[in-house]
């Protein structure tokens, strides 16, 4: 069993993370929190954060936190009626200022995936108007983001013309899989599970083709572009190389897709039977301590050498989530050692105060703000703290509904 100290840490952090996240409420959604937990006004209100935090507060509502009941309803209302929703395109803008005025920039599938996730989790939590939000988000998804021929989502569109950018990305598709799994949990409509399985199958073949190092960047025909941003390896959104954290995140999602498909007799790519454990082991081999210091490096090249050596807290969180999921599906207790190791490292280097996880460290485990500043949201950490207490389900909200599990 995972040590009692680890489980106690995770349970305590669950509530502390929610308490910290409550500071993020703004008039038009949820804001980016800085190092001390104040809203970073210069960041405005970002769609991905508002979606993620609405999802997190829906989980908190399911765990019985009355503040989260109010906050999840606030998030749903802002996503439906606030300035993030663009009436001209029937889509969602990526960022508005704190006063609600729009900021320039394209529409992005990545950000939209969190609107879907928020709506699905809120629907399972019976948050008012969540079904209305889910209906609207899925209509926009079909109209703007889903590419039926490819079985994937396009990445971004021009806000004025809705022209599709030539770039295709694995990241937007990964979070779309998470969102579609949540919609499947909320609606039991197999369409969403089939779409999640299609995306995951294509990604699985890309992983195998590239020696378990997932390409992040593709052209509009879904050919991998391995040298994308080679001259900008630290780009915050599209860095060169492969993100180790995404190997871990995809490993977990592949298990969730496989379990859900098996339960209802929907076909899935057989690579999903073996690939998650291989991806996890590759992440440990080439990511954990790859430069001689503990912690996961951020990116590696396609020969497996570290490129960006900074440590991101979300990567460590996805390591926990993947290990917890693989422990359950395989029955292999060796994952418990990994979970304890990750928990000890987080306690020593990431958790500055209860519920406050430092976002980024340098290769010597010193706090920095190179790619990410402050403590923007609680999504990765909250899910990592909860997942080990729940059965493997398409969505965490469903796991909470099934078990009523709540940290002590």
Q: What would you say this structure looks like, in words?
A:
- With about 400 residues, the protein is mainly α.
- About 50% of the residues lie in helices and about 10% in strands.
- The protein contains 13 helices and 18 strands.
- It has helices at about 5-20, 45-60, 65-80, 110-125, 130-145, 170-185, 190-210, 245-265, 275-285, 315-330, 335-350, 380-385, 395-405; strands spanning about 25, 30, 45, 85, 90, 95, 105-110, 145, 150-155, 155, 170, 215-220, 240-245, 300, 310, 350-355, 355, 360.
- The strands form 9 sheets. The protein has a two-stranded antiparallel sheet. It has a two-stranded antiparallel sheet with strand order 3-6. Strands 4-5 form a two-stranded antiparallel ribbon.
- A hairpin with a 2-residue loop joins strand 16 and strand 17 (about 355).
- Helix 2 packs parallel to helix 4 (about 110-125) and helix 4 (about 110-125) packs antiparallel against helix 5 (about 130-145).
- The radius of gyration is 19 Å and the shape is globular.
- It starts with a helix and ends in a 5-residue tail after the last helix.
- The mean pLDDT is about 95.
Largest sheet: 2 strands, antiparallel
The low-confidence parts are none
Question: Based on DSSP secondary structure assignment, what is the total number of beta strands?
Answer: 18
Q: Please work out how many helical segments DSSP would assign.
A: 13
Distance between the termini: 18 Å
Mean pLDDT: 96
User: How much of the sequence is in beta strands?
Assistant: 5-15%
| Large-scale geometry | globular
Write out the strand line-up for the largest beta sheet, numbering strands in chain order.
1-2
Radius of gyration: 19 Å
């Amino acid at each position: 069993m995972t040590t009692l100290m680890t489980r106690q840490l995770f349970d305590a952090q669950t509530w502390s993370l929610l308490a910290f996240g409550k500071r993020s409420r703004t008039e038009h959604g949820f804001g980016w929190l800085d190092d001390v937990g104040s809203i970073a006004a210069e960041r405005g209100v970002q769609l991905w954060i508002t979606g993620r935090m609405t999802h997190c507060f829906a989980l908190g509502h399911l765990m019985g936190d009355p503040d989260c009941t109010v906050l999840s309803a606030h998030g749903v209302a802002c996503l439906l009626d606030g300035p993030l929703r663009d009436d001209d395109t029937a889509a969602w803008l990526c960022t508005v200022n704190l006063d609600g005025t729009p900021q320039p920039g394209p529409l992005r599938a990545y950000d939209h995936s969190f609107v879907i996730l928020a709506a699905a989790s809120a629907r399972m939590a019976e948050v008012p108007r969540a079904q209305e939000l889910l209906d609207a988000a899925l209509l926009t998804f079909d109209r703007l983001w889903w590419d039926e021929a490819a079985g994937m989502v396009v990445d971004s569109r021009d806000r004025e013309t809705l022209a599709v950018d030539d770039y295709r990305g694995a990241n937007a598709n990964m979070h779309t899989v998470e969102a579609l799994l949540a919609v499947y949990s909320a609606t039991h409509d197999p369409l969403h599970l089939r779409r999640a399985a299609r995306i995951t199958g294509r990604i699985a073949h890309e992983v195998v083709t590239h020696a378990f190092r997932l390409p992040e960047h593709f052209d509009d025909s879904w050919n991998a572009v391995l040298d994308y941003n080679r001259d900008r390896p630290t780009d915050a959104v599209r860095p060169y190389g492969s993100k180790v954290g995404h190997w871990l995140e995809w490993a977990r999602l592949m298990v969730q897709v496989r379990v859900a498909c098996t339960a209802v007799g929907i076909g899935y790519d057989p690579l999903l039977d073996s690939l998650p454990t291989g991806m996890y082991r590759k992440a440990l081999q080439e990511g954990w301590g790859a430069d001689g210091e503990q912690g996961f490096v951020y990116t590696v090249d396609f020969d497996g050498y570290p490129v960006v050596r900074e440590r991101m807290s979300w990567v460590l969180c996805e390591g926990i989530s993947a290990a917890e999921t693989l422990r359950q599906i395989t029955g292999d207790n060796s994952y418990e050692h990994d979970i304890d190791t990750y928990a000890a490292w987080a306690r020593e280097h990431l958790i500055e105060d209860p519920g406050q996880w430092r976002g980024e460290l340098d290769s010597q485990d010193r706090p920095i703000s190179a790619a990410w500043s402050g403590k923007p949201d609680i999504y990765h950490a909250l899910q990592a703290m909860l997942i080990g207490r729940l059965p493997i389900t398409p969505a965490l909200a469903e796991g909470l509904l099934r078990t009523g599990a709540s940290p002590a």
